[in-house]
Amino acid sequence: MSVDWKPKIVGFACRWCAYAGADLAGTSRMKYPPSIRLVRIPCSCRVDPSFVVRAFQRGADGVLVAGCHPGDCHYTTGNYLTRRRFSLAKRFIQYMGIEPERFRVEWVSAAEGGRFAGLVEEMTEDIRKLGPNRKMRERL
Amino acid sequence: MRQLQKQLRQEAEDAFADGHVEVFIGYQEGFERARPVPVFVRDRESVQEMVLNEFSGVSLSKYLLREAERAQEDASIGIVARGCDGLGIERLLYDQCISREQLYIVGVGCPGVVDPEKAAQLCGEIPVAAEVEKQQVVLQTSSEELTVAKEEVLRDKCLKCDDPTPRIYDALLGEEIQRGPVRQNRFDGVEQLEAVSDDERYEFWVRQFDRCLRCFACRNVCPACSCVTCSLEEEEPQWLKRSTSSSEQFMFHFTRAYHVAGRCVSCGACEEVCPVGVPLMLLNEKLLKDVGELFEEPSPHLPSETEPLGEFSYDDPEGWRGEAGQS
Ligand code: SF4
Ligand code: SF4
Ligand code: FES
Q1: B323–A84: do the CB atoms touch at under 8 Å?
Q2: In this predicted model, which residue has the larger pLDDT, B296 or B317?
Q3: Rounded CA gap, B17 and B44, in Å?
Q4: Residue B126 · residue B120 · CB < 8 Å
Q5: Alpha-carbon torsion (B317, B319, B324, B326), positive or negative
Q6: pLDDT tens digits for chain A (140 residues)?
Q7: What are the C-alpha distances in Å from A94 to residues A43, B58, B197?
Q8: Of B143, B127, B13, B92, which Cα lies nearest the Cα of B267?
């Protein structure tokens, strides 16, 4: 492990809640580690589980999928489908050998800036303990 | 079985005579007696080429897709189906790939199919005949007769079979058989693998996937895999590179298994056709197990009206919780 390695997390955040929550954390100048790269998506159910595998292939140390709380999805039912898909996908990815701390699914509302910052901090810490991810990784 | 083969030929002949089938999908003799191969009988005279014996068990259901495309509009397609192919046919029917009116299904109450590889291990050569009896299997080689336990010699898929008789058929050969020949616990293998560490599990899959030739036989045979354009072959965006690096193998196997999650009927065909023995059922069964546990959907099988990943309920659990890493 190189001395200056820092965890890299790819975050998929739906534009209506989770992304707005992250925005709020930013505009309120909350401090959280710069480890996350956010990808804005229309709805959490836009995330195909193979996006997660792709992120690990391309060098992510962790992946976060974040959407509106159940009941709050802008498209009414998108996140209920997300819940089913990722309930399976999370377990399946772990079954293939990825540590569970590296991949999380969370609901974050537009008002939960603090929660978003806390999540990133927690994940970054967990991943720091695990070290860089080499599993499923493309050889550079 | 000899009796059943006679009946099958008769059924097929009658079907051609009535003029209501255009093609009949079954088995014919292969290079070796223990390896019958699929046959597509297109006229009444060729019916006598069809065989049905203790070895004829490779999956046929997916051929229906191709034959349905070729068939004249209202002509029907005959097929001989053991329980596992019955499940495959149900899958294709519920996915509206074929219509029931188009099919003439000759079901077989299946006592189990002998795996030629396992038999060769036991006999020292490929047997020329076999008889699946109530408690055991009798194998016949060129020089001797050997009696072995079913667990030792039936195909893997038969050891976990719950439905030896297809649930839908137009004619049935032999008796309805209710119980599978052995019925080992379906999820034993998955549970063993779940119990080891993440690192060990990863290494296990690396070893398995490294053998994969990317021949796509597993996908091609799968009755739940019927998209016109497969994402695995798409060029733009290219989800799967042609490379067989370990990383791409994970992408391939993740996608293949996940794309049939909630739709796999556990017919076992994918694992059976794999030329290099990738334990694909260990992937499918993990998903089957979780679908059952999380959503209380009928699982395995029953391609009934429910679509575990196409529907939801408001009080579904969050399957990612409870384990390490996320409370
Ligand atoms: S994934 Fe394998 S076991 Fe499941 S339906 Fe397809 S071929 Fe059958
Ligand atoms: S059948 Fe086996 S070798 Fe061929 S693509 Fe599937 S897993 Fe790979
Ligand atoms: S819009 Fe946020 S989860 Fe659907």
Answers
A1: no
A2: B317
A3: 7
A4: yes
A5: negative
A6: 567 899 999 999 999 999 999 999 999 999 999 999 999 999 999 999 999 999 999 999 999 999 999 999 999 999 999 999 999 999 999 999 999 999 999 999 999 999 999 999 999 999 999 999 999 999 86
A7: 24, 32, 10
A8: B92
Distance CA B309, CA B264 (A): 12
Measured distance CA(B49)–CA(A99) in Å, rounded = 54
Starting at the edge strand found earlier in the chain, the sheet holding A103-107 runs A36-41, A9-14, A62-67, A103-107
DSSP letter at B149?
E
Q: Whose CA is nearest to atom 4 of ligand 1?
A: B264
Instruction: List the structure tokens of B175.
Output: 């008796």
| Ranges of each domain in chain B | 2-110+159-173, 188-311
A130 has a chain B CB within 8 A of its CB:
no
Which pLDDT score is estimated for A2?
62
From the alpha carbon of B268, which atom of ligand 1 is closest? 3
Token pair of A135, please?
A: 């599993």
Distance, in Å, from the CA atom of B176 to the CA atom of B111, rounded to the nearest integer, reads 10
Q: Which A residues 6-35 touch B at CB under 8 Å?
A: none
Is the peptide bond between B300 and the residue preceding it cis, with omega within 30 degrees of 0? yes
Q: Does A136 contact B at CB distance below 8 Å?
A: yes
Of the candidates B187, B232, B238, the residue with the CA atom closest to the CA atom of residue A95: B187
- Does the beta carbon of B276 sit less than 6 angstroms from any atom of ligand 2? yes
To test the pocket of ligand 2, the residue of B233, B273, B278 to mutate (highest count of ligand atoms within 8 Å of its CB) is B278
- Candidate from A90-94, A113-117, B72-76, B234-238 with smallest mean pLDDT: B72-76
Q: Report whether pLDDT(B27) > 70.
A: yes
Tell whether A115 lies on the interface with B, counting CB pairs under 8 A: no
Q: Which of B196, B258, B264 to mutate against chain A (most A CBs within 10 Å)?
A: B258
Contact B201, B193 (CB under 8 A): yes
Which residue bears the tokens 């999956």? B59
| Nearest-angstrom CA–CA distance, B89 and A5 | 53
Considering only CA atoms, which residue is closest to atom 4 of ligand 2?
B215
pLDDT category of residue B318 using cuts at 50, 70 and 90: very high
> Which structural domains are found in chain A, ordered by start?
11-133 (3.40.50)
CA distance, residue A65 to nearest chain B CA (Å): 12
Comparing C-alpha atoms, which of A66, A77, A70, A74 is closest to residue A108?
A66
ipTM, 2 decimals? 0.95
Is residue B81 within 8 Å of B108, Cβ to Cβ? yes
Which two structure tokens, joined as six digits, stand for A96? 């293939």
